Structure formats: C-alpha cells, structure tokens
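Figure 3 (text version): structure tokens given as input.
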C-alpha cells in the first residue's frame, strides 16, 4: 500500500473510532475527481465547529506527533493542525466550522482507491470550490481538470463559492470559476 494511502487510512480509522465527521480533500481527493498529480501529504477537513477545537486538537496530539512548535496555538490561530502520521507522512487537518465545510462533509462519500484503501472524500463540486478558493496556479489547473472530467453542479458551486470568495476579499476569482464551468459544457 502506498505510504500516503496508509497514512490517510490510519488517521481516518482514528477519526472513525472517535465518531468524528470528516472527509479527505486535497491531492488524494483529486486522484478521484481530476487529473492525478503527485502530492506529498494527506489533507482532511475535520468538523470541529467554532469554540470546540481544543478537544479535537488534544485528542489528535495525544496520538500523533506535531510538525510545528506550539501546535495547539498554531492550530487555533490558523484553523489547521499539522501532524505526522505514524508512518512519518505529513497530514494537514483543517478544523472545519463553516456551513460550507459542514455541508461538504455531509456530502462526502467513500471511494476505493486500491484494495484495502477506501477513504471518505469530498465531492467533485466541493473540491472544485476549494481549488478555486485556494487560487494558486496549480489549484486553478486542478479545478480545470475537475471541470473537464466531472459533471458539476454550477448552482451549488456558485452559492458557496460567491460567499467564500467575498469573505476572502477575492470575488474576482468567481470569473475564473464561471469560465471553467462554462468551458466544460
């Protein structure tokens, strides 16, 4: 089994044992929905809500090594917990609390990547939203591949992405999203 898949399976098993709501995002989800490319870490969103993060952070850090000094403060400040899986691979755990993140996790579904490796991944629509929101050139390229390969729900994407981009002060990115969504038809 690939070391990244093993790391993802391990952390997902831990989250499942706690009854936590989460999904795999980022490069591993892209292997399901877009053009696979090399990724060096596992990315997940864990639904913690706002104000409840500490109990999740403490439980994770009791089982996994942090990659940064003063991990709890870093995680609370940046809403991301940077840890090492038991096999040494990097894992980024986003601390979710927005309505979009809650809906994304509710919509997530299991996908079998290889024998013995089934992970709950976000939907293609939600991955497209996150890629446009991230806005880096490689993320825009990923979003384009997702739009080319998947039948996307433009109304769902627009509803969430307009709000998120507005909050970020990057509403101009919506033009890129619309162009990619139109280009897929």
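Below: residues designed for each position.
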């Amino acid at each position: 089994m690939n070391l990244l898949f093993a790391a993802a399976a391990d952390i997902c098993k831990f989250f499942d044992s706690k009854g936590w709501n989460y999904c795999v995002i980022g490069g591993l989800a892209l292997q399901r929905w877009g053009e696979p490319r090399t990724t060096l870490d596992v990315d997940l969103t864990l639904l913690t809500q706002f104000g409840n993060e500490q109990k999740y952070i403490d439980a994770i850090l009791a089982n996994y090594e942090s990659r940064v000094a003063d991990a709890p403060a870093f995680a609370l400040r940046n809403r991301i917990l940077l840890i090492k899986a038991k096999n040494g691979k990097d894992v980024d755990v986003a601390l979710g609390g927005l309505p979009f993140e809650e809906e994304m996790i509710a919509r997530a579904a299991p996908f079998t990547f290889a024998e013995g490796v089934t992970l709950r991944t976000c939907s293609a629509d939600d991955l497209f939203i996150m890629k446009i929101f991230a806005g880096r050139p490689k993320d825009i390229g990923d979003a384009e591949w997702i739009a080319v390969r998947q039948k996307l729900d433009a109304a769902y994407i627009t509803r969430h992405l307009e709000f998120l981009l507005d909050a970020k002060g990057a509403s101009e990115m919506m033009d890129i999203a619309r162009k990619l969504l139109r280009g897929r038809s």
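Residues 28 and 42 are 7 Å apart (CA to CA).
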